Amino acid sequence: MKIDGSLSGGVQAFHRASESMAEAASDIAKATTNREASTTDFVKPLVSMQEAEVQAKAAAKLIDTEDEMIGSILNVSA
To answer: Is 24 exposed, middle or buried (0-12, 13-18, 19+ CB in 10 A)?
Structure first.
C-alpha cells in the first residue's frame, strides 16, 4: 500500500506557501528601498503574504490529518 503520496502533497503545498511568502517579503523590501514607492506598492505583496499564511496553515492541517490517518491505518494493521 502506498501512503506517501498524500503526505508529500501537504509538504509540497507548505513549500509553495513558503515560497510565496518569501517572494512577497522580497517585493515589500524592494518597495521599501524605492523612495518613490506609494502605498499601493505594498498592498499586493501584503495580501500575498496573508494568502500564503492561510495556505501554510491549511497545508499544516493537511499534514497533521494525514499523519493521524497513517497512525490509524498502522494501528488497525498491527
So the answer is: buried
Burial of 76 (0-12, 13-18, 19+ CB in 10 A): exposed
Q: Measured between alpha carbons, how far is 9 from 40 in angstroms, rounded to an integer?
A: 34
Q: Which residue reads 496553515 in cell numbers?
A: 57
Q: What is the pLDDT of residues 13-68, one digit of tens each?
A: 999 999 999 999 998 888 888 777 677 778 899 999 999 999 999 999 998 988 88
The residue extents of the domains of the chain are 11-73
